[in-house]
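Record type: monomer structure entry
Structure origin: computed from sequence
Chain ID: A
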Amino acid sequence: MKPLKRKQLIDQTALQLGISKDIVDDVVSYYYLNIQRKLSSVDCHSVSIPRLGTFVVKKKSLVQMILKHQRFVAKIEQDEDISVQTYELIIQKRAEIERLIKLQESMAGEDARREEVKLKKQIYRDGKLN
């Protein structure tokens, strides 16, 4: 499946429905913004949208984000004079790191489940061939 670019999607939809491109652009932008918010909220590792596909958090990006937050917290904690706002920021970043690590564990569990299913399928095929 070859994905459509947003501009192509807007042009085709506006032409088919006979609606202004601006209105279609607003609707599509709002829709994609909500998908992006759902993924960035770190509640789940994938969002499946019918007829559009599954949007997945990349493992590499997740690891980089965890490291980025950890380095940031470590750098701020080195300062001797920490203000209340800075301390609040440290607490927020630590909470974010915990959420990201939970998401990473969830993704690892999902990968393990997929491998288990793949193994069971292979065992079934091998048994059926014999």
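Annotation 1: The CA atoms of residues 3 and 52 lie 8 Å apart.
Annotation 2: The beta strands are 46-49, 53-56.
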